[in-house]
């Protein structure tokens, strides 16, 4: 009888263990499903935001910043400078091996234009670096409004990083459209899906980092305000 009772106890424990495991797996599955749904919804919202980006009809600002990544962006930024959309142009993130003269020739611009109104930045190697380089340039020259020229899918993250560095500056998006998400069937293009998914992931990480840093900053101010005054 004692052996039979022990066997029943072991069987009951096994059933409870299996039941607990099923509950954990079920909850884990629903959590994973919820995260997947949030990711897909966020990605589609990001793609729709990118697709809706349009350059202003009459672009005008104190200055222009172009984030390198192709001569199409630089060509557009130089054309904006020539048209008087800004007083001065910063080309940020230029390869150290590339000279201003090479860029001038590729954009078919005059030497006088580049001498008076174009600055070449060689320090930045990524979007955060672009924002730091541009932020210092804006600060040094006292600009209050800046046209930002970059690819449409790169624009949300670029603006996020620039506003983090220079929150008091007005940044105006001037997207260069390489792929029109409104008219093209981009969902059938695996290379473009990969590119925009990667950019969405980077934008998400940047957004979380910005949110976390702002919460930490707010917490620091709150804690400082509640702390007792130092004794003299």
Automatic annotation (TrEMBL):
GO cellular component, as recorded: plasma membrane
Coiled-coil intervals, chain numbering: none
Location of the DUF218 domain: 62-187
Taxonomic superkingdom: Bacteria
Gene Ontology biological process terms from the UniProt entry: Gram-negative-bacterium-type cell wall biogenesis; peptidoglycan metabolic process
PANTHER family: ENVELOPE BIOGENESIS FACTOR ELYC (PTHR30336:SF4), INNER MEMBRANE PROTEIN, PROBABLE PERMEASE (PTHR30336)
Full protein name: DUF218 domain-containing protein
Organism of origin: Sinorhizobium glycinis
Lineage: Bacteria, Pseudomonadati, Pseudomonadota, Alphaproteobacteria, Hyphomicrobiales
């Amino acid at each position: 009888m004692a052996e039979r009772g022990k066997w029943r106890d072991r069987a009951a424990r096994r059933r409870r263990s299996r039941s607990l495991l099923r509950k954990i797996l079920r909850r884990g599955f629903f959590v994973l499903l919820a995260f997947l749904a949030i990711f897909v919804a966020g990605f589609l919202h990001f793609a729709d935001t990118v697709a809706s980006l349009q350059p202003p009809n009459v672009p005008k600002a104190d200055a222009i910043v172009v984030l390198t990544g192709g001569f199409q962006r630089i060509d557009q930024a130089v054309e904006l400078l020539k048209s008087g959309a800004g007083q001065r142009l910063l080309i940020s993130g230029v390869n150290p091996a590339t000279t201003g003269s090479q860029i001038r020739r590729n954009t078919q611009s005059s030497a006088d234009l580049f001498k008076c109104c174009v600055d070449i930045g060689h320090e930045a190697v990524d979007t955060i670096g672009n924002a730091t380089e541009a932020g210092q340039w804006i600060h040094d020259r006292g600009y209050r409004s800046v046209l930002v020229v970059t690819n449409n899918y790169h624009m949300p993250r670029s603006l996020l990083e620039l506003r983090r560095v220079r929150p008091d500056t007005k940044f105006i998006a001037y997207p260069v459209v390489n792929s029109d998400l409104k008219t093209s069937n981009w969902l059938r293009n695996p290379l473009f899906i990969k590119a925009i998914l990667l950019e969405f992931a980077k934008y998400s990480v940047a957004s979380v980092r910005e949110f976390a840093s702002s919460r930490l900053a707010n917490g620091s101010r709150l804690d400082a305000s509640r702390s007792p005054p130092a004794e003299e």
